[in-house]
């Protein structure tokens, strides 16, 4: 199934799950706990505060070689906005995954690689306690390079 078909399907519009596709075009749905929504909203709000020159958005679809992935939160510069809206294969500069109990280390490593292949400059991981880990293509960093004042732990 193509992503354009998924977003146009009225039966899939109001599901309480995050929707992605795998490399076979099959729909993958992930249910979330409330803490997931809390951290997602907090990260989006703080990104707007730390990086006011760009835009933060939730669940921004990115077409990858292994299907369509939707990071929980993204940030992109206004310079990149037109390109992002024209090409769903391009990733925003920052992609954030808020982890759930079903995430595996292998899945997260694959998503990081896919986001970097699509042009992300940083991939952040937020666990269920609000602790963040910041990654660049070179590996894990002690803080965000693009948003150095972003906290390592949300309160």
UniProtKB/TrEMBL annotation:
UniProt key word Nuclease: yes
Gene3D superfamilies documented for this protein: tt1808, chain A
Name this polypeptide is given: Putative restriction endonuclease
Example of a GO MF term: endonuclease activity
UniProt entry keywords in alphabetical sequence: Endonuclease, Hydrolase, Nuclease
Domain Putative restriction endonuclease: 25-138
Domain of life: Bacteria
């Amino acid at each position: 199934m193509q992503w354009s078909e998924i977003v146009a399907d009225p039966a899939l519009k109001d599901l309480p799950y995050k929707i992605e596709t795998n490399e076979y075009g099959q729909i993958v749905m992930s249910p979330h706990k409330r803490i997931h929504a809390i951290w997602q909203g907090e990260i989006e709000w703080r990104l707007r505060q730390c990086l006011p020159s760009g835009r933060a958005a939730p669940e921004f679809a990115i077409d990858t070689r292994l299907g369509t992935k939707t990071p929980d939160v993204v940030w992109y510069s206004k310079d990149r906005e037109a390109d992002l809206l024209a090409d769903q294969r391009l990733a925003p500069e920052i992609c954030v995954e808020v982890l759930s109990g079903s995430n595996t280390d292998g899945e997260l490593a694959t998503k990081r690689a896919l986001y970097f292949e699509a042009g992300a400059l940083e991939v952040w991981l937020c666990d269920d306690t609000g602790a963040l880990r910041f990654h660049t293509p070179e590996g894990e960093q002690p803080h965000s390079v693009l948003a150095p004042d972003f906290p390592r732990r949300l309160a």
